[in-house]
Every structure is written in C-alpha cells, then in structure tokens.
Amino acid sequence: MKLFHRSTQLTCLRTGLLVILVTIAAATGANPATQEPAPDRVVLNGAVYTQDPAHPWAEAFAISKGRYVAIGTNAGIRALAGPRTRVTDLAGRMVMSGLIDDHVHAVDGAMGELYDCIYPSSSSPAQIGRILRQCVRKAPAGAWIRGGYWDSDFFKHFPMASPRAWLDRIAGNHPILWRDDTGHNAWVNSAALRLAGIDANTANPTGGSFEREAGGSVPDGIALEAAAEVVQAVVPDRSDHEYYQSVMRAQALAHRFGIIGIKEADAVTPVIAAYQAADRQQQLGLYVATCISTLAQQSNPGVLVDFDAIDRIHATYHSELVATNFVKIFLDGVPTPVRTAAMLEPYLPDARGNRVSGELHVNPDVLARDVTELDRRGYTVKMHAAGDRAIRAGLDAIAAARRANPGSQLRHELAHAEFVAPDDMPRFARLNAVAEFSPVIWYPSPIIDAVIEALGERADHMWPMRSLLASGAPLAAGSDWPSVVPSMDPWSGIQAMVTRRDPHHPAGRALWPEEAIGLADALRIYTLDGAAALRREAETGSIVVGKSADFVVLDHNLFKVPASQIAATEVAMTFFRGKLVYERPSATRDH
After folding, report:
1. Where are the domain boundaries for CATH 2.30.40.10 in the chain?
2. What does the alpha-carbon distance between residue 514 and residue 521 come to, in Å, rounded to a whole number?
3. Backbone phi, then psi, for 395, in 5-degree steps?
4. How many angstroms separate the CA atoms of 391 and 398, rounded?
5. Which of 255, 284, 260 is nearest to 584 (CA)?
6. Torsion of CA 288, 291, 295, 298, to 10 degrees
C-alpha cells in the first residue's frame, strides 16, 4: 500500500488492521491510538494530475474535512475507506485542480444574461433591431434598456450617419446604454443623453469623448472611454436582490466550467457586497478576489485615488471566501479603431488621416504614488494596460513601489499585456510583476480584426506568452467575460494558448505561433499561478496533502487528446472544499 504524504512517499511493508490504522493516522495527522475516523471520501481509478513535481500523477486520493489527506495508488487509498466513507470511482477519467479565472466581470456577465438586452458581437443592424424590439416589448414604460455587445468595428461595417438617431427610431421612449465588445465604450440614444445632461455644448471629459455627427457638434450617440462613464453614472443601479441573483448565476456558470476561483476585475461596492452576502449565508462556493474599482475616481489623471475610501470598502466587505485586498486602476483604453490604448508608436492614420498614440488615463508620477501607497497598505493592484506605453508606465510604477517598500512580496498585475516592448520583457521577472492575459488570441475574430485595422502588422505580435514564460515572468489568465467572449469558458482559452489558433476554426490562421506554450504550462497558469494571483497558493491550485480539495473531473485526458480537442473538454464534476458543487448527469459512480 503506497501513499504520498506531504510530498513524501510512505510504503507499507505488511498488512493487517494495525498497519491500516497507522496509515490512516499518517494521512490525517492523528494518533493511531485514538482511532480517528476514516476519510470522508476516497476518489479511485482516476488519472490524477497533481501538479506536485515530486509526484505529478496518481491514481487516487482521500479527503477529510474538505482537505486532501492522502494521495497515491488505488490499493493504498481504498484501504483507508471505512463503512461511512463515500467512494467515488472515476473509471479512468482525468482529475486536476479546479481552474481560476484571474480576470472576469462575472456579476456583470450574469446580470446581462438575467436582466439585460444582449446580442452577439457578430450581430448585424437587422439582428440588433429585432432584439431591441423584443426588449422594448418586455420593458416597463420609460425604463432603461442596457446591455450590448456591439463589435468594435461595427460602424465600419455598417456606417450610420447617427447611431443615436438609429436607436431613437426603434426605442425613442426608452433611454438606452449599450456597451461594445470591449466594455470600454457605449452606444446611447437621445433619451440617455438628455438624462445625462449631454448636448452639443457639452465638452469632452478627460480621457474620453462624445463622438459628433458629421459637420456639427451634436453627439452622435457613441461615447468613448470616460464619456461612457458619464452616461453610466445616471443609469439607476440594480437592486440588492438582482446583484445577489447575479452572483448565484455567475457561480453556477463557473462551476459548470470547472472554475473554483475568480477575480472580479473591476468591482463596484454593490458587487462586493453581494459576494459577501452569499458567503455569510453559506451559499458561496468560490474563492473570490474583488478588485475595488477606482474608475469613478479617475476623472482627473493628476489626482491620487482615495486610499481611505478603499480601506473602508476592504474592512467592511471582506469575508472568509471574499478577499477585498485588491484594487483596479485603468491605465489606458483599447487598441481598436477608437485608438485609446496608449502606444509607444502612433496608430495607423484614422479616417480623417490623423495619427495618434492613445493617452494614459493616469499621469505616470501619480500612478507611481498610487501603486506605492496601495502596496504599502497591502493591496495587490491590477492595472488595465493594453498598449505598450501603458505597460511601461505600469512597470515603472511597480519599480517605484519596490524601491519604496523593499519588503513587499505583493505581485501586482498588468492586465491584458497585449503589446510589450522588447526592452520591457525582462522587467516582469525582475519586478515580480504579473503579465495577465485574456487569451482571445486567435483568428478569425472581430476584436482582432479591429486591432489590425488600427495597428496593421503590429497586430501580428500580440501576447508574447512564450517569451515572458522563458524570462521567468509570473503569468496569469482570465476570460474578461462578458467583454469580447461569449462566456467564461476557460478551455477555449487553454487551447488557444497551446495552438495560437481559433479553437472553433483550427485550420485558420495562427497568431504569432512562435509564442505558443505547452499544455502543462497553460494548465499551471490556470491553476497554481491563478491561485497565486488570488493570494491563495498555499490553499489551492494543486492536488497535494493539506490543500483544499478543489478539483474537477474531466471527460477526457487532456494529455492524450490532440490539442485541437482541448476546447471541447467538458467537466463531469466540480468539487470545492471537498463538496460536490456541480455534476453532469451520470458522471459519477459513488457507492
């Protein structure tokens, strides 16, 4: 009988009751004379991918009180079972640690599914109009209609003299705010502009603009970056019930995909409160890190964030499963035709022949002071940084924090990290700064096509994963759902990281194939590295004795199928802290 215990292999040399009792004691840390109870559950006949370098694969494991207490062979683990132990026979299925989505707007996505007017980013005007009419019929008189998500290149493919007037003709009696597929920009109608107090005399806010109709100053209904937030500020907030139901919906979706931990990438207070409420009612089955939003504070790039307000949110809403020691700062926009990501070199000329480089949303010296103070107070900072100039500014700020706070071990993140200048590549490892990817990295893709239009051949060199990995940089990954992608499904992202191709059209063009990474590295990014991004690497992320039993059972062995089949992976069961939280019908053989 062979067991792995805290990365040490124990070998029983004889059989008998005394030996079994000693083995149980070794696995649970109990004194054999006390005859501690047998494990709560044993899981047998699996291909268990542990991610323990000493023992990367096992056949079985035992769980007590929500933690792994023994890992090893079928025979050794089966011998630990008592009359009340639940036995799960996996019939050879692959088991691995549950996945972590390090960048998701899960409540926003779930709320959209439950309450909003949404449509695929591939929709045409006719399809959007049909969906909008359906939403109008369901909405109370005069109610806001919100949702999205229109393609970043939508108005290039479907030119409109006035997007505002187009919405007015269908739903002029309802204020409308629709986000684009990046989540950064909004399409609104006249009613929404009126309620926000925006007209031809309204100046553009810092860090954003209201697009104007040709030959005039009348807003055409497209609000970019900070301008979108001006309209958003007058949209009535959701009820506590709606936020709570959205948390429950988001959790159900996460469990179906095998996700046991998430990082809410830009969390406003009601979102954080809803997660805490679910945790206090013992309804939460996820590790949640909430990046406290500073978006409302970023109206002036020269003003520091409100550190004391962040402290109050952190102190009020943290709970066992909800970590509130994370903060979000937006450094720039997106590298699509709106040209708002901050680049070191100018974009291709726009329709008017202008060449711009995008703008930083925060002055570099202010950003350095923000990150330094947040680091001193114990917050991990996630910085939205799509352009290479934003990446450089973020790294400079982290460097300033390292100089000011030399004892800090916090791993600050540069979210998306699409474009990284060669000189900045080694700085991630030196600064222990995380390059966080949202691996929508394939062709054909509307968002990639939009980036190509704005940047040309530079779009062929996005997400340098292999190079960063080779440099020793810490990495993380997330879906960014509901931005761009239709769901938080991680398996398509994993396949794309390995193949650099569209998982649903694998014969298509590859995006910078030299930057593909191996499957083992991709799985580590979604598990152990994700756990580190949540500051829970000692608790989860691998199947080793002492860690929380957070694992998934898959319908096939990822290492035994072609890479082109990774995206088709289905989760048979998801366990969180030893509890079954999702099960596909007929997936288990408990007895």
Report:
1. 2-98+551-563+566-583
2. 15
3. -65, -40
4. 11
5. 255
6. 170
Q: Where in the chain is the domain with CATH 3.10.310.70?
A: 106-232
Distance CA 128, CA 588 (A): 42
Q: How wide is the angle at C-alpha 182 spanned by C-alphas 179 and 185, nearest 5°?
A: 45
State the CB neighbour count (10 A cutoff) for residue 227: 25
In this structure, what are the phi and psi dihedrals at residue 85, rounded to the nearest 5 degrees?
A: -75, 130
Q: Which CATH number fits domain 2-98+551-563+566-583: 2.30.40.10, 1.25.40.10, 3.30.750.24, 1.10.10.10?
A: 2.30.40.10
Other Cβ atoms within 10 Å of 262 Cβ, number: 30
- Token pair of 268 as six digits: 């406003």
Residue 381: name the closest of 345, 433, 317 by CA.
Answer: 433
591 residues of the chain, pLDDT tens digit each: 344 443 333 333 223 322 333 344 444 334 343 355 899 999 999 999 999 999 999 999 999 999 999 999 999 999 999 999 999 999 999 999 999 999 999 999 999 999 999 998 889 999 999 999 999 999 999 999 999 999 888 998 899 999 999 999 999 999 999 999 888 899 999 999 999 999 999 999 988 899 999 888 999 999 998 899 999 999 999 999 999 999 999 999 999 999 999 999 999 999 999 999 999 999 999 999 999 999 877 768 889 999 999 999 999 999 999 999 999 999 999 999 999 999 999 999 998 899 999 999 999 999 999 999 999 999 999 999 999 999 999 999 999 999 999 999 999 999 999 999 999 999 999 999 999 998 877 766 778 888 999 999 999 999 999 999 999 999 999 999 998 888 999 999 999 999 999 888 877 889 999 999 999 999 999 999 999 999 999 999 999 999 999 999 999 999 999 999 999 999 999 999 999 999 998 755 555
Can you list the positions of beta strands (E) in 525-576? 551-554, 571-576
- Cα separation, 250 vs 101, in Å, equals 12
The continuous run of DSSP H or E covering 582 comes out as strand 579-583
Alpha helices in 336-425 (DSSP H): 364-376, 388-404
Residues 331 and 360 sit within 8 Å (Cβ to Cβ):
yes
The pTM of the full predicted model, rounded to 2 decimals, is: 0.89
Domain formed by 106-232, architecture: Roll (3.10)
Q: Tokens 């909008």 correspond to what residue?
A: 132
Asked if residue 522 lies in contact with residue 498, where contact means CB atoms within 8 angstroms, the answer is yes
